[in-house]
Amino acid sequence: MSSSAELEAKIKLIADWDGLRGLWAEVKAGTPGGWEDGKALEYLVIRAFELDPDEKPIVRYPYVVPLFGEKVEEIDGAVHLPGLSCLVETKDWSKKVAIEPIVKMRSQLLRRPAGTIGIVFSKEGFTDPARCLAHFAMA
């Protein structure tokens, strides 16, 4: 199993959008060479924000949130821009994502400063109930 630092260094070898599109094609095909399950998509999404030539956000690659020495959350990433902070969740599943990740994201946002938003990315899309719940969660 690769460390977070190793995976971050690996994704940073992709220096442009063409490289990210190539990795995305591999993720979609289920063949991201040299990446552990789900990790390519997690790091690809954050790298895409990092490569934005106009904004230059502060990004944080996947990390663990400890509380009293125990892991209480695993965050797939975070993106910070002036006046905007967002948590990122990715799902590299072979089926559409149901409501559980939306519920999890909403719970995570309740523990963050007001105004923090959540973004959930799915390789295969979302079920109708998940899409509906996401609309309610925006209120």
Description of the structure:
The protein is of the alpha+beta class. The protein has a single domain (4-137), classed as Trna Endonuclease, Chain: A, domain 1 (3-Layer(aba) Sandwich). It is 39% helix and 24% strand. It contains five helices and six strands; from the N terminus they run αααβββββαβα. The strands form two sheets. A four-stranded mixed β-sheet has the order 1-4-5-6, sandwiched between helices. Strands 2-3 form a two-stranded antiparallel sheet. The model has no long low-confidence stretch (mean pLDDT 93).
Topology:
Layout (H helix, E strand, L loop, with lengths): L3 H8 L5 H13 L9 H12 L7 E3 L2 E5 L2 E6 L1 E5 L2 E8 L8 H11 L6 E6 L5 H10 L2
Parallel strand pairs: 5-6
Antiparallel strand pairs: 1-4, 2-3, 4-5
Helix pairs in contact: 2-3, 4-5
Task: Tell me the number of structural domains.
Answer: 1
* Residues in β-strands, percent: 15-25%
- pLDDT < 50 stretches: none
Taking the alpha carbons of the first and last residues, their distance comes to 39 Å
CATH class: Alpha Beta
Assign an overall shape.
Answer: globular
Number of helices: 5
Radius of gyration equals 15 Å
The computed structural class is: alpha+beta
- Strand ordering within the main sheet: 1-4-5-6
What's the count of strands? 6
Q: Which CATH-level-2 architecture?
A: 3-Layer(aba) Sandwich
Estimated helix fraction = 25-40%
SSE topology string: HHHEEEEEHEH
- CATH topology group: Trna Endonuclease, Chain: A, domain 1
Q: Describe the biggest sheet?
A: 4 strands, mixed
What would the average pLDDT be, to the nearest integer? 93
